[in-house]
Design a protein that fits this description.
Blueprint lengths: L19 H8 L4 E4 L4 E4 L2 H8 L5 E2 L21 H7 L14 H12 L4 H20 L6 E3 H18 L3 H10 L22 H16 L5 H6 L11 H32 L1 H9 L4 H12 L5 E5 L3 E3 L2 E3 L4 E4 L1 H4 L35 H18 E6 L1 H4 L22 E6 L2
Parallel strand pairs: 2-8
Antiparallel strand pairs: 1-2, 3-5, 4-10, 5-8, 6-7, 9-10
Helix pairs in contact: 5-6, 5-14, 6-7, 6-10, 8-10, 10-11, 10-12, 10-14
Bound molecules: protoporphyrin IX containing FE (HEM).
């Protein structure tokens, strides 16, 4: 594609398979570039993105998950739109999500959510995930091939969060079947009323009933403890607040982790020497995971809304402008990462990437995601040798094709067909 100047990042499906050339085109216009079709400034510069995420008073997260679609329900006026935003926030899509909250309300909701990530709970969850990885691999390993995304990564990530939240075993399969797509479908025309875009309507119903019931009659399980949780000042949250948190943990933690596993395996297949290196020295797995998150991580972008007129990197940003934080591009900023288009395990600044965000909204599930991918990679490498991409599905080396979900917020491999020699 050569006409990047006419491309709309939010609707053009040609960018889905490989967004990186477009990101480089944007970078050639400076670290903050205006997208001509919308009231959006796109950030490809690492330092500029960091400045923005570290200033939540100037840059609201109200549009974090959705960006400029749908448009704001008000016409921004003047150099400070805080009052307008406060007046219209409830009309905006998905502002109940913790990732879209600001200030004290965000801190309160984040602390509520952290009740679920206690060390004891995480330890029990980790034991569950190591057993689960064996069970799922056992379903297909003898065939010598699988679609890593549908046969392994998606059920794995879904079941791990179901376990973390204490969803009864009998309901977990229903969760795997019913979960819809995450927000941000490329080219979707979304209205404020259209909550389907979040793919979460089923979750809202489910958790609504569950948590309301457990608030009345505690059953001593994890969801009951969560139903009784308090805000840091001792006040009691609405059941609706807890429902948003529970549902978001699925939205935020399921697809991202599954697609990171896909990206890790794609990388190991494309660089066989690296596959052998990691197979022979498992202590490299944490560095490998961080490098894949930097090089081809699952979150392509998050958004912010400029609440006050300001200047970043010499560019004036008017209040009311949407900011697309293109984390996938910032992580390849050559001013920050040497040879950014290469996978290099021992980068001195390997963990400085923005793949899990930064600042007050840094990914709350990062340790969980890393634990999930570590367990999976270890067991996959234990039980499968000579893992290769299937030529039948992806084509011959050098001409391979991959299908990604058409979502502008996520970099989500739809399928990854691999072949391997089973290890008994
Ligand atoms: C590879 C996997 C994952 C990646 C790459 C990832 C990435 C991110 C990013 C980039 C953000 C920041 C969004 C922003 O700047 O507005 C974020 C926030 C968040 N993530 Fe993750 N995430 C992953 C897995 C998970 C998991 C497993 C969970 C939980 C089960 C989770 C829960 C959250 C939550 C709750 C937030 C919002 C935090 C807040 O607003 O305070 N994530 N994640």
């Amino acid at each position: 594609m050569t006409h990047f100047d006419t491309v709309d990042f939010y609707t053009d499906k040609e960018l889905v398979e490989n967004p990186y050339p477009y990101f480089e085109y944007l970078r050639s216009q400076g670290p903050i570039a205006r997208l001509p079709q919308r009231n959006v400034l796109a950030v490809t510069g690492y330092a500029e993105a960091l400045e923005i995420v570290n200033d939540p008073k100037t840059f609201s997260s109200a549009n974090s998950a959705t960006g400029p679609i749908p448009e704001l329900p008000f016409e921004p006026e003047g150099d400070d739109i805080q009052e307008q935003l406060d007046a219209h926030r409830d009309e905006m899509l998905a502002t109940g999500l913790v990732v879209a909250k600001d200030g004290k309300e965000h801190a309160d909701h984040r602390s509520l959510m952290m009740n679920l990530f206690t060390p004891t709970r995480l330890k029990a969850n980790e034991e569950y995930m190591w057993n689960l990885t064996d069970t799922l691999i056992g379903n297909f390993v003898d065939q010598g091939h699988c679609d890593l995304i549908t046969d392994y990564a998606t059920p794995f990530a879904t079941l791990v969060i179901a376990d973390l939240l204490g969803i009864p075993e009998n309901d977990r399969i229903t969760f795997c079947e019913k979960l819809g797509p995450p927000p941000g479908a490329v080219g979707e025309d979304v209205s404020y009323e259209d909550s389907q875009v979040l793919g979460m309507s089923f979750l809202f119903e489910y958790f609504g009933e569950y948590l309301a019931e457990r608030r009345e009659n505690s059953k001593g399980d994890i969801l009951s403890q969560f139903a009784q949780a308090k805000f840091p000042d001792g006040s009691t949250p609405e059941v609706g607040d807890l429902v948003w948190i529970s549902a978001f943990l699925f939205g935020a933690g399921q697809d991202t982790t599954a697609r990171l596993l896909g990206a890790c395996l794609r990388t190991l297949c494309e660089i066989p020497e690296l596959q052998e290196q990691v197979r022979n020295d498992r202590s490299l797995i944490p560095a490998f995971i961080d490098e894949v998150v930097r090089y081809d991580g699952p979150v392509k972008c998050a958004h912010r809304l400029a609440v006050k007129t300001t200047t970043i990197g010499g560019v004036e940003i008017k209040a009311g402008t949407h900011i697309a934080l293109l984390y996938g591009a910032c992580n390849r900023d050559p001013r920050e990462f040497e040879a950014p288009d290469q996978v290099i395990l021992n980068r001195p600044n390997a963990r400085k990437h923005l793949g899990f965000g930064r600042g007050v909204h840094t990914c709350a599930g990062m340790p969980l995601a890393k634990a999930e991918v570590t367990a999976s990679l270890n067991r996959i490498l234990d039980r499968m040798k000579d893992i290769k991409l299937s030529e039948e599905h992806h084509g011959q080396p050098g001409k391979q094709r991959f299908t990604y979900e058409p979502i502008y917020t996520l970099r989500a491999l739809k399928n990854l067909h691999i072949e391997f020699t089973p290890v008994s």
